[in-house]
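Record type: monomer structure entry
Structure origin: computed from sequence
Chain ID: A
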Amino acid sequence: MIRSRAAVLLVAMLAGTSAAAQPPRSQPPRPRAPLPTTTVPPDQPKPNKARLFPPQDLGLLEPPDRDQWQKPDQIMDALLIAEGSVVAEVGAGGGWFTPWLSRRVGPNGRIYAEDIQTQMIEEIVRRVRRENLSNVVPVLGTPQDPRLPDGLDAVLIVNSYHELEDPADPQAVVTLFKNIARSLKSQGRVGVVDFTAGAGGPGPSADERVDPQTVIKTAAEAGLQLIKREAVQPFEYLLAFGKP
């Protein structure tokens, strides 16, 4: 009798193990995990948090009408971003623009979504997983080095130039642009999109908005020349730079 009970117990245990080893047939497939995130060595300079957008306010950057005034297709067209392009987004924040870039370059392209705040990178990773963006690589950069690979077709900086500037080190943003330029292909482009002067529409306060000539001067110091300048109506401007 004892042996019989033991045998029954053993069979039940084996059956339970077998059942646990087999996932339910109705279980949906898991989305593909994001590509590895690069990290910053501990000896790298820390960002000046006072000038950075607070991660807890990311919702303010994603109003439902942003795609209407941000004009992502116009911006990507100006930078010649196409299927198969390799593109970096510097200062990507929570990654609002990242899915637009990901869809444009397609499965044969690659997007490097860079930011210097760990919380922003974590949000990008969540977005990548949520939207199953298999061609996006989150990159944790530094204030002066976005730590991008070589061979980029385009680098995009959207609504974040004022955060790149460091009053304590005016040359920091020039160094950043030099590092960006080194990552570009010979015909690659750098696009800076920011808000026009004044306090109308969305965007930062009037005193935080950057004059286009300031950006052009910084790019020139970094060895980049202006290729194109156009309005992104009704609130922004676009500057496209390239190597001489």
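Annotation 1: The CA atoms of residues 195 and 203 lie 7 Å apart.
Annotation 2: The domain at 2-242 is CATH 3.40.50.150 (Rossmann fold).
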